[in-house]
Design brief:
Strand order of the largest sheet: 1-2
Structural class: mainly alpha
Helix content: 55-70%
Order of helices and strands: HHHHHHHHHHHHHHHHHHHHHHEEHHHH
Number of helices: 26
Length: about 550
Amino acid sequence: MHNRVNIIVEIMILLIMQCFEGTKERIKKMFDQIELSVSYYDTAWVAMVPSPTSPHNPYFPGCVNWLLDNQLSDGSWGPSHRDPLLTKDTISSTLACILALRRWGVGEEQMKKGLQFIESHFASVSDENQHTPVGFDIIFSGMIEYAKDLNLNLPLRSTDIDALFRKRDLELRSCHRENSKGREAYLAYVSEGIGKCQDWGKVMKYQRQNGSLFNSPSTTAAALAHLQNAGCLYYLHALLEKFGNAVPTVHPFHLYPRLCMVETIESLGIGQHFRKEITSVLDETYRCWLQGEEEIFLDPATCALAFRILRVSGYDVSSEPLTGFAEEHFFNSLGGYLKDLDAALELFRASQMIIHPDEQVLKKQNSWTSHFLKQELSSSSMCAYKQKEYIIQKVNDILEFPHYASLERLLHRRNIVNYTVDDIRMLKTSYCSSSIGNKDFIRLAVEDFNACQSIYREELKQLERWVQEKRLDKLKFARQKLAYCYFSAAATIFSPELSDARISWAKNGVLTTVVDDFFDVGGSEDELLNLIQLVEKYSLFPLYLIFM
């Protein structure tokens, strides 16, 4: 009977593998090439950079031509299939593109259509339900002022413009009252919205080794337009060489999305299908960790995620680099100033990876991040988050179920149920990546989970027959704990090919329960002494093998 069940399970595993092949191949390709959406907003700012030798001509004319060729039929610039709640973002991108065309005196027809789009959708700017780009009040008002400098007549009421300026001034006054490094970083990040009033010398202290400011093409382009900095120019040239005439909103964006893929795939219980790809990502991440790459150590979410995944996977990584994101440092950074919930979540989860008694940095990190997350859950600021309900559920789950207190297979099921297919993220403009919120992940996870359930049901039937054959169900003194014992096995040793291990675990649990109950209520004193002598006599021959 055991061999027959093994054959059934092997056939089911083979059928599962064949059914998954198409989905698996698509996911494997994502590991090789991270796709990141084009940013119309950032491309527009790159297009606005003047040539140092001919200020009346663009430095990157290919970007200008790309804008001319990629306006949508409704007059806007942005994704063709956009969420209605991203209209405010589209208005911002559209105005940036119009300014770029106006700056170089081209595209009169495109500008006219773009202005009509802004006019007809302008109510979205003050709609509190819209997803708001980072720094929108400062940047959009700054673009309106730049439009005036370019003698561009915007079809907006003066009262609406004044309201925007008041909102911008209120935010700037609030920023100046809060004398922190986080505020300084934020104002540097939105420099294109401050323009001529910005202290560009101070902004340049945020320049990275790759020449960029915050890995942001728009901020870097604005700095190049004002300072003609060689590092900024090098970064933008490298960016256009890689992506052509249209740029993303953040670059480099290499390690974080790959780590997100690993995290998502493992959390949905389908990691066994991608061991080679996952190992490749972890090896690369570990090399970057050892080399002190900025892409890891300047970003709290990437650093925390890399630390957690590497440590769980057995790589030798110290928690010391996380001191750079201690409470005082985090809230003095751009992410801390923006109350980056994703970064705080990753730092909290990383803080649970204590393996040495002297890791005080993780203990302190656990304390302040848990306090911050609980505070944010009860705060009205949660309303500003895209996917509010999903974020609240995610934070609650992470706080309520520490990684060491969860059965892995139950965690997979909960992650499948709560998974959201949404690849849209927001910085100064929205962006998406195929490696985040992908439909193929959840499709494979559901199919795999259901297929495994079929295997588990077959194994449970086999165990029920075994209990009957051994007449264990006839022992009146013994509790019937087969389902309980098998559940503990399937919830932890869940891979389909580990059928023998699950069955052995469950049988051992059933027999242990029978012996325990026999000692507690079923046996006489003489019977118990006889059993003890039998165990001692046959200590080299496992008792459970008698019942196999």
